[in-house]
Specification:
Elements (H helix, E strand, L loop, with lengths): L6 H16 L4 H4 E5 L4 E4 L4 E6 L5 E9 L2 E8 L8 E8 L7 E7 L8 E7 L8 E3 L10 E7 L3 E6 L2 E7 L14 E9 L19 E11 L16 H13 L1 E4 L11 H4 L5
Antiparallel strand pairs: 1-4, 2-3, 3-14, 4-13, 5-10, 5-14, 6-7, 6-13, 7-8, 8-9, 9-15, 10-11, 11-12
Length: about 280
């Protein structure tokens, strides 16, 4: 591990994230498999879940509850090998044309190429706030923890407890922020070969199907173990901001605020509100 970030610190953050997720819920109790005709399976007495994709269909699940703010964690192990054309997701969403949404989408790759983690935030039906990252590890080799902290002030997306993105409430300058619509957790594995890998240039190799991704230790934290709600005002401390800059400097591959070709005029970008 490089670039002025301590290996010891990264390891301690990973351990703390793993332990937090270890007190997770049970998939039988917390989610419904909503589509896939048997391609989604709850395993190990509800402790883990698998989603599969073949040429006929993908699969997905949804939380039984809707949430207005909280901390949401899941551990995932992504499709290994040639996963080109596939998309594995974990996201929050409300319903309707004016929906809110917080996206984590993992775009598959040809063997030897890195996965792309595509993130986006929708408010009142409007998105176009994409940031994309490569990861500093192989997400197919073992489970890693992916988290969303959503409170009235900000959204923080973390990987192994390392912040990779912050989207702040900028309503004071006219930017919509998701704060009024309860959202459910959804997850899916589906085919998006028309755009997912190198803009659709690399298609899904169905001879490799079925493709399978695994989820475990899902947690929706709305009250901490001591009865408090620390996530309700959680922000990045000094070390968190250093880690965020490290990720964005070395692993961010797309930022909507820097895309001149798309001619965005997002107000939150002009005021450097991304850290």
């Amino acid at each position: 591990m490089a670039n002025r970030v301590s290996k010891t610190l990264l390891f301690s953050l990973f351990v703390s994230s793993f332990l937090a997720a270890a007190s997770a819920g049970n998939f039988y109790r917390d989610v419904d498999i909503t589509w896939g005709d048997g391609r989604g399976k709850i395993l190990r007495r509800g402790n883990s879940l698998s989603l599969s994709l073949d040429k006929a269909s993908g699969s997905g699940f949804q939380s039984k509850r809707a949430y207005l703010f909280g901390r949401f964690d899941v551990q995932m192990k992504l499709v290994p090998g040639n996963s080109a054309g596939t998309v594995t997701t974990f996201y929050l969403t409300s319903q309707g044309n004016m929906h809110d949404e917080i996206d984590l989408e993992f775009l598959g790759n040809q063997s030897g190429s890195p996965y792309t983690l595509h993130t986006n935030v929708y408010s009142q039906g409007k998105g176009n706030r994409e940031q994309e990252f490569h990861l500093w590890f192989d997400p197919t080799m073992k489970f890693h923890t992916y988290s969303v902290i959503w409170n009235p002030q900000r959204i923080i997306i973390l990987v192994d407890n390392i912040p990779i993105r912050v989207f702040r409430n900028s309503e004071s300058i006219g930017v919509p922020y998701p704060k009024n619509q309860p959202m459910k957790i959804q997850a899916s594995l589906w085919d998006a070969e028309d755009w997912a890998t190198q803009g659709g240039k690399v298609k899904t190799d169905w001879s490799k199907a079925p493709f399978t991704a695994y989820y475990r230790n899902f947690s929706a934290l709305t009250t901490d173990s001591d009865g408090s709600k620390g996530w309700l005002t959680q922000d990045l401390d000094v070390q968190g901001r250093k880690l965020l800059r490290w990720v964005q400097m070395h692993y961010m591959i797309y930022n909507y605020c820097a895309d001149r070709n798309r001619r965005f005029s997002h107000r939150e970008c002009s005021r450097s509100r991304l850290l």
